[in-house]
């Protein structure tokens, strides 16, 4: 065989190997990061990526509104009003129809719930009558305040819409917090009717996030709203579902992911997203990275606001088993957050989006996996 043929085979093999190794969020090793403010008052973030790649940022404490980006987050259109009340999170892109669903509540929950649907990638919205059934304890879930929902892509429940929810059992006063529990609601008819799941197996929880792993298992990550003893720092709680999100099993306390300021006993809503990379379960989690100071026991309730800083991303390459990588996003004010991932073949391809509360407004950070790893190849973080 001639040297030219040998060289040609070598080059073709190398090219095929590179193609097989393609991870759109790696951006061929080019580091990308930028941040801009897109909301200048109120709070409560959610962000999703429509099927055409349009970014839909949902926001609002008194008046829910949406902003759209059709160019991968570079520019944003004017605010589109949805209605009065709270953005209660759980926005969902229906992967079958392409419709986008968002939820609101009239006032701080428990309160009347509303669902709005967009059939044109977030340009227009119409309220829709829905039915939400009671859970096994006779409670109607509240929606406030949770990470976005998802459409299940695998197994017997493919096509199911599911989003985190919660129950304010007994009331919203602090004396009832130990009775609260987080759960999920799911729909098998495109969002017309919703069935609550069984409660998350640890009480005192609220404000959760759900992602589906490549084998169809659901990974559930929840805020512990307040420590049971009123002093102990909080860590995130996790569980799994094998039945499409109806029941949750194997509850654990994370020893890596913080639930807000570890110098406080009061948790914080975090963001969660899975990157769509063939054969891998890469999860990203957002919260604040403020470890408890040694020798200081300052668990004042009001500290939960003034000491929400140092927004950080944690990365798991094995579906949430381990979290070997973290990266600071914003040194300053940082509170509730929501994560979304770009879609292949659209202007959002290869990018990750973090919408977060900051100093009375909302910022959007756009970045890729190379920025998170600081140039170290992402496959070096994979477990054998």
From TrEMBL:
E.C. no: 3.2.1.18
GO biological process: ganglioside catabolic process; oligosaccharide catabolic process
Residue ranges annotated for the Sialidase domain, each copy included: 65-345
Domain of life: Bacteria
Catalysed transformations (reactions): Hydrolysis of alpha-(2->3)-, alpha-(2->6)-, alpha-(2->8)- glycosidic linkages of terminal sialic acid residues in oligosaccharides, glycoproteins, glycolipids, colominic acid and synthetic substrates
Gene3D superfamilies recorded: 2.120.10.10
InterPro entries for this protein: Sialidase, Sialidase_fam, Sialidase_sf
Single Gene Ontology MF annotation: exo-alpha-sialidase activity
Family: Belongs to the glycosyl hydrolase 33 family.
Name of the protein in question: exo-alpha-sialidase
Taxonomic source organism: Mariniphaga anaerophila
